[in-house]
């Protein structure tokens, strides 16, 4: 570990001097001298430092930089010379990164956990992905040790007065510029001076100098994805145009090798500067000796890949070449290390690559026998305090509740697991409309939520958050999917269609049948959207066919007119076509928030602090229309949960069969709809 | 006007050169990026100058920049520039006009009939995108009676040409049996194709399938959890509308 650290410190020092000297004279390397150098790539680490899942609070060996680090160590032993690069999407993606960015923001003198371990491993340079911008420009400026010259948007804390702790290797990015001064935010490229262990013509070992130029690019679409931080503050320029400008400049400064780090994949559509995945075109810019790519969370080379982007003209997916340029993409979350092995030969005082000997590999942390390479212990040691603090944060109570929030009886009227979600969503959207969409200020804001877990896998497959303290990880039980909050504008007719579609959950009941009829059909529980709002009421008549089941739809005591207008809070999935709800195809969306429904829920609980059944668990907007059925109407739920129904005020539910016989811990319950 | 001519000269190959050949589409896209995100007035002036000489790419680019400013006056100007480009046969301008009428914008109330008009005017290079929106119009009955069979034809055309949004919608039609015979396996195949493009809703269908167990995707809570993580990642960089 020490060795890597000192090497990287040395690198930064020589880098500084290299930046200020151009056109210096160097001793010529004797013709025929050979050297092998391996370029190692990590990409899309997404702050997965350890093999750990912070939601489940348990180890996950399939991911984690602590294991990639073992592959790095092995590669360094294997090759006489190696350089280590990161492609980006590095500092965001786990509870650890959220903790350091948002919960307990890093102080100026502290180094981000991810960069800390990268410093330990001695990286030579890194690029910038799109997710680097997720926490805002002020944070990125701080943790990368920069002081961006930008006019920040509202909501960002000011750029720190002095440079803060950051990585001890250069971060490079050519295609992002400040609106304020029209200059790049990062160094567009660096030229690294290195000493290679080479072999002279006579076979004797010899140390020779080399200059390695590194240039990096991020996808131009960051301006859309992180609009809330970037709009009007920064802009991007064309990747191909900048490569054509800078690469000759780097060569003129003596770069023997040019490494392009580009956070993106391959796309053979005609080149235009706003193309998201520009690297198929970038590879055709003269002078690039190796390309380290990422963003798509894929492995390249991969002979078996059916991905469109790896089956384009000029792409050798088996050997890892794009238009003859050796190229690697190292998967994501530390699952894979990319390795490009170059064999250099000196000729006429210049290094050239013996292309026939170039080898490109993607080395996984999972062995052929499905086991995983062991972690490098020093990685965990370096960030143990941050790791423990994150676990403590995930377990910290954010509020408490005097009732259990469960989905056992969600099908028959217990809204305890949905109402708090609806309240949080309604609150968020109402505030958003007031602040940013004044044209809709007069429209009522409603919200829908559905039970995510309704017993597919048996009696344990239900939402259950016990009464008492609520922690962050409980929010993931209440909101299973990492969806983002969307709101749509619908008419009264559209709202009715929505609720009709949600009522597909129920089979059509024939009241005359004397035999047992199952109330619930095959439509999954997560399609049973429901409203829990004191102002809105509706009945579901299960004796009617789908399409005419929603009766007496009332808002504030008056029938809802088909032309009335409402704003309804939901998630990206439903608003964009998920579940195939009529009219919900993306065209009604008026708010597409980058905030997750889960985070909105967490914030709401933090503010509300104490949840009670009375305020947060009883406002069902819907009831079943009365049915005098001749036979029993039944549904399944977990065994032994009748007291849950009773506590939720469902007096018409009883046990029909204590065990449904499936062996999955389910019981059959009966509901009397005549009351 | 004099200033305009100066700006044009920056790009002009020769003074005799007609507008259409003054700047390549990539050069105009670069100017658009500078004018839009870069708030570069000079780039805006250059684009305007090119647009005034009749360059359809520049007219569309100006339209795009103005649309993103999100106020009624600029949207109205944007529509004007886009119509000029579309009148010259610029497919992507017609597509943008269609989208603006389908989704609405400040000062523009959604209008399915007007949207359809522009989607039907796009040429072959934007045909898959236009087909996707025509599918939405037919399925949603926007200014027209609902026609699932027509929606299916449009979505299939677009899906077969690689549009993940259309793949997802086609999957939905197979799942629900609208316009086609219900076929859950075929639905899942289309969801899988769309998910390969990181389509968040399609990935959510895979998560749901792994949760309940599906003929193509057998029950696996681990796989469902992986799919949920994949949704989280995909939602951080949602694909723009086609």
Describe this structure in words.
The complex is a heterodimer of chains A (675) and B (242). Chain A has 18 helices and 35 strands. Chain A is elongated and about 100 Å long. The model of chain A is unreliable at 1-25 (pLDDT under 50). Chain A has 675 residues and is of the alpha/beta class. Chain B has 242 residues and is an all-alpha fold. Chain B has 13 helices and no strands. Chain B is globular, with a radius of gyration of 21 Å. The chains are: A alpha/beta (675), B mainly alpha (242). Chains A and B meet through helix 6, strand 9 and strand 30 of A and helix 2, helix 8, helix 10, helix 12 and helix 13 of B.
SSE class of chain B: mainly alpha
Roughly what is the average pLDDT of chain A, rounded to an integer?
94
Number of helices of chain A: 18
CATH architecture annotation name of the largest domain in chain A: 4-Layer Sandwich
Q: What is the CA-atom radius of gyration of chain A, in angstroms? A: 30 Å
User: Tally the helices of chain B: what do you get?
Assistant: 13
Q: Biggest interface, which chains?
A: A-B, 56 and 50 residues
Largest sheet of chain A: 8 strands, mixed
- Named CATH topology of the largest domain in chain A: Purple Acid Phosphatase, chain A, domain 2
Radius of gyration of chain B: 21 Å
């Amino acid at each position: 570990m020490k060795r890597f650290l000192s090497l990287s410190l040395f690198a930064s020092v020589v880098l500084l001097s290299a930046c200020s000297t151009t056109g210096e004279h160097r001793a010529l390397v004797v013709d025929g001298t050979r050297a092998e150098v391996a370029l190692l790539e990590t990409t899309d680490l997404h702050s997965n430092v350890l093999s750990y899942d912070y939601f489940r609070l348990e180890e996950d060996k399939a991911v984690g930089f602590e294991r990639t680090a073992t592959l790095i160590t092995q590669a360094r032993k294997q090759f006489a010379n190696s350089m280590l690069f990161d492609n980006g999407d590095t500092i965001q993606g786990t509870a650890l990164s959220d903790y350091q960015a948002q919960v307990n923001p890093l102080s100026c003198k502290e180094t981000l956990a991810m960069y800390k371990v990268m410093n330990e491993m001695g990286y030579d340079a890194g690029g910038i992905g799109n997710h680097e911008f997720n926490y805002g420009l002020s944070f990125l400026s701080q943790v990368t040790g920069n002081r961006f010259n930008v006019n920040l948007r509202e909501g960002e804390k000011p750029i720190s007065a002095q440079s803060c702790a950051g990585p001890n290797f250069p971060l490079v990015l050519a295609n992002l510029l400040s609106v304020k001064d029209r200059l790049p935010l990062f160094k567009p490229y660096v030229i690294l001076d290195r000493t290679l262990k080479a072999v002279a013509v006579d076979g004797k070992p010899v140390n020779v100098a080399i200059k390695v130029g590194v240039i990096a690019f991020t996808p131009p679409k960051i301006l859309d994805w992180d609009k809330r931080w970037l709009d009007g503050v920064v802009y991007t320029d064309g990747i191909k145009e900048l490569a054509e400008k800078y690469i000759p400049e780097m060569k003129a400064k003596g770069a023997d090798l040019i490494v392009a780090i580009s956070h993106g994949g391959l796309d053979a559509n005609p080149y235009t500067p706003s193309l998201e995945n520009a690297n198929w075109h970038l590879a055709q810019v003269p002078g690039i000796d190796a390309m380290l790519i990422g963003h798509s969370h894929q492995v390249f080379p991969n002979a078996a890949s059916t991905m469109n982007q790896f089956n384009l003209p000029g792409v050798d997916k088996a050997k890892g070449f794009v238009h003859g340029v050796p190229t690697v993409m190292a998967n994501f979350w530390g699952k894979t290390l990319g390795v490009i092995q170059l064999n250099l030969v000196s000729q006429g005082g210049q290094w050239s690559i013996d292309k026939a000997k170039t080898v490109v590999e993607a080395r996984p942390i999972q062995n052929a026998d499905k086991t995983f390479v062991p972690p490098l212990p020093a990685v965990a040691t370096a960030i143990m305090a941050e790791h423990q603090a994150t676990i403590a944060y995930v377990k910290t109570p954010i509020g408490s509740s005097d009732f259990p929030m469960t989905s056992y009886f969600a099908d028959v009227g217990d809204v305890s697991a949905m109402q708090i979600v609806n309240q949080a969503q309604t609150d968020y959207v109402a505030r958003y409309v007031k602040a940013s969409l004044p044209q809709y200020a007069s429209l009522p804001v409603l919200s829908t939520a559905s039970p995510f877990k309704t017993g597919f896998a048996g009696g344990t497959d239900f939402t259950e958050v016990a009464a008492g303290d609520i922690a962050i990880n409980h929010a993931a039980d209440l909101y299973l999917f990492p969806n983002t909050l969307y709101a749509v504008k619908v008419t009264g007719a559209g709202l009715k269609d929505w609720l009709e579609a949600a009522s597909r959950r129920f089979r059509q009941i024939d009241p005359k049948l004397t035999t047992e009829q199952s109330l619930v059909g095959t439509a999954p529980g997560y399609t049973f959207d429901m409203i829990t709002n004191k102002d809105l009421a509706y009945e579901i008549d299960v004796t009617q066919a789908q399409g005419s089941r929603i009766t007496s739809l009332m808002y504030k005591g008056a029938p809802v007119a088909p032309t009335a207008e409402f704003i309804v809070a939901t998630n990206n999935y439903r608003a964009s076509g998920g579940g195939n709800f009529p009219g919900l195809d993306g065209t009604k969306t008026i708010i597409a928030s980058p905030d997750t429904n889960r985070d909105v829920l967490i914030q709401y609980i933090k503010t509300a602090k104490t949840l009670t059944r009375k305020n947060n668990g009883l406002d069902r907007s819907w009831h079943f229309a009365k049915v005098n059925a001749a036979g029993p109407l039944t549904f399944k739920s977990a065994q032994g949960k009748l007291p849950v129904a009773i506590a939720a005020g469902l007096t018409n539910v009883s046990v029909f069969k204590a065990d449904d016989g499936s062996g999955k811990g389910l019981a059959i319950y009966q509901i009397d709809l005549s009351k | 006007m004099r200033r305009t001519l100066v700006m044009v000269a920056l790009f002009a190959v020769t003074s005799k050169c007609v507008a259409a050949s003054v700047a390549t589409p990539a050069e105009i896209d670069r100017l658009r990026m500078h004018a839009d995100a870069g708030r570069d007035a000079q780039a805006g002036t250059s684009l305007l100058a090119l647009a005034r000489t009749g360059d359809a790419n520049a007219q569309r680019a100006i339209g795009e920049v103005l649309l993103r400013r999100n106020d009624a006056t600029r949207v109205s100007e944007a529509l004007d520039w886009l119509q000029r480009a579309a009148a010259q046969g610029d497919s992507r301008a017609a597509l943008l006009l269609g989208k603006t009428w389908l989704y609405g914008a400040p000062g523009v109330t959604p209008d399915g009939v007007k949207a359809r008009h522009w989607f039907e005017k796009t040429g072959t290079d934007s045909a898959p995108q236009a087909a996707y929106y025509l599918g939405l119009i037919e399925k949603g009955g926007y200014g027209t009676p609902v026609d699932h069979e027509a929606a299916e034809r449009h979505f299939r055309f677009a899906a077969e040409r690689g549009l993940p949004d259309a793949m997802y919608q086609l999957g939905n039609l197979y799942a629900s049996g609208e316009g086609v015979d219900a076929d859950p396996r075929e639905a899942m195949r289309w969801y899988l194709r769309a998910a390969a493009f990181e389509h968040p809703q399609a990935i959510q269908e895979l998560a749901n399938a792994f949760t309940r167990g599906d003929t193509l995707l057998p029950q696996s809570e681990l796989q469902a959890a992986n799919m949920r993580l994949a949704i989280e990642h995909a939602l951080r960089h949602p694909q723009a509308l086609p």
